[in-house]
Amino acid sequence: MSNRYDELIKKIPGPLRPSVRNFYHLARKLFFSIIVGLCAGGTGVLFYHCMSFVTNTRMNNPWLLFLLPLGGLLIIFLYRAAGEGDNKGTNLILIGIHENKPISIKVAPLIFISTLITHLLGGSAGREGAALQLGGSIGDYIGERFHFNDQARKTFIMCGMSACFSAVFGTPLAAAIFSMEVVSVGIMNYSALVPCVVSSFVASLLTEAFHAPAEHYIFTQIPHFSVVPGLRILIVAILFAGVSVLFCFALHSSEKLYHRYFQNPYLRVVVGGLLVIAMVYLFRTRDYIGAGIPMIEQCFAGSVPWYAFLLKILFTAVTLGAGYKGGEIVPSFFIGATFGCFIGPVFGLPAPLCAACGMVGVFCGVTNCPITSIMMAFELFGIDALPYYIITIAVSYLMSGYYGLYNSQKIVYSKYLPSSVINRHPR
Q1: How far is the C-alpha of 246 from the C-alpha of 358, rounded, in Å?
Q2: How far apart are CA 71 and CA 68, in angstroms?
Q3: CA-CA distance, 69 to 82, in Å (whole number)?
Q4: How many alpha carbons fall within 13 Å on the CB side of residue 56?
Q5: Do 313 and 328 touch, CB atoms closer than 8 A?
Q6: Which of 366, 410, 215 is CA-nearest to residue 293?
Q7: Mind listing the pLDDT tens digit for each residue in 93-119?
Q8: Degrees to nearest 5, angle at CA 373 with 396 and 363
């Protein structure tokens, strides 16, 4: 294909060659990004509806919580039977991009089924992290089927990530940027811009066609931006960064503790399931199992307990550290929204505004993706509170330091020194 293409280009008059070459690359990228968008986006839409079904089933059948340890055993068995016993979750996708390692298509059905099991039986987890694994594995498989080289398959992986993220959460702009930004902090692979944007919006169109509504939060209490509110949100943003560091520390520490004291993965997941059940009855609430979307919505409609963010950190760390599957992004939204709802009025700011800032601030702190966070703020909340979002995201990005959810993410440039290359992984 490449040799034939080069021969054809040589026959074109010199001044026209650049334009013909650009049109060729555009047409090629449009074609394959639409294919990935349809496949990964379609899978994401199916995943969204299955997630809604299992969540409603769990809420209507509280007794399912007692089956969580058995569900954990099934998850471990499925992964080991498929030869994916050492699966690293979303980190696996990032490793595939960094090191040109193939991603087994078996990851897609495994994360799909195991995440549904986790949510059906009451584990505390999200869905977007699972969507990244779904989309990345599908994208890599399509690239392999069309016999693309390792470099081109990176783009397919990112397209798949964007498409599935867009389908599951309904934020196509943020989804398009996230897959490019999360891989290497400080450097974005702009050659993947057109494919990721196209795949993301193809998936977004699928969500409309198959009635998978996007997330949107509406609030009206937005104070006029001036010096005093600006200083207040700056202080609150520093606290959001601290909460994001706490969340990352809790997730990584829980996994290490589980592995230290329970080396057998089957025992580990049973202990984790029993701990979740015990915590539900200890704290006398089920608000912290599943994704927790109702509690996020409550932050924009009223108030939540001041300790809600701490309990969500605890429930999520216990669940994911034990080996249950799901994502970390929606829990980060939950944590940011509930903490913002509590801390905002303390500093004289409206609770709904700080809940919104908390969602994008903590998300930025745990993913190290400021551009994606800005896009997400626009899509979730609109642009009326733009100055508050920007300050929150910028400060949280800086003050969260080199912590992050994904150990395989690479932080290329220093957050503190301009043009200083550090090439390190998050803590």
Answers
A1: 14
A2: 5
A3: 20
A4: 6
A5: no
A6: 215
A7: 888 887 778 888 888 999 999 999 999
A8: 60
Q: Residue 171, SS3? A: coil
End-to-end CA distance of the chain: 43
Taking alpha carbons only, the member of 363, 420, 421, 419 closest to residue 392 is 363
How many Å apart are CA 178 and CA 16, to the nearest integer?
35
Q: What is the separation of C-alpha 127 from the centre of its chain, rounded to a whole number of angstroms?
A: 8
- Report if pTM > 0.70: yes
Q: Between vectors from CA 131 to CA 126 and to CA 132, what angle results, nearest 5°?
A: 110
Q: Which amino acid is at 189?
A: N
In tens, the pLDDT along 37-90 reads 999 999 999 999 999 999 999 999 999 999 999 999 999 999 999 888 787 778
CA neighbor of 396 nearest in space, from 352, 348, 357: 357
> Which residues of the chain carry a pLDDT beneath 70?
1-19, 21
Structure tokens at 365: 């702190």
Query: Which single residue is written with the structure tokens 């959810």?
Result: 405
pLDDT score at 25 = 74
In angstroms, the CA 40 to CA 34 distance is 10
> What does the pLDDT read at residue 11?
59
Single-letter amino acid code for the residue at 217: Y
Side-chain-side CA neighbours of 152 within 13 Å: the count stands at 14
Alpha-carbon distance of 55 to 312, in angstroms, equals: 17
Q: Which two tokens stand for residue 119?
A: 């949510």
Other C-beta atoms lying within 10 Å of the C-beta of residue 360: 32
The C-alpha angle with vertex 42 and arms to 40 and 46, in degrees rounded to 5, equals 115
Three-state secondary structure call for residue 10: helix
Helix (H, G, I), strand (E, B) or coil at 101: coil
State the pairing for strand pair 421-424/410-413. Answer: antiparallel
The C-alpha atoms of residue 370 and residue 380 are separated, in whole angstroms, by 15
Cβ atoms 326, 129 nearer than 8 A: yes
Task: Assess contact for 367 and 405: CB atoms under 8 A.
Answer: yes
Q: Specify the pLDDT at position 107.
A: 87
pLDDT for the residue 1: 46
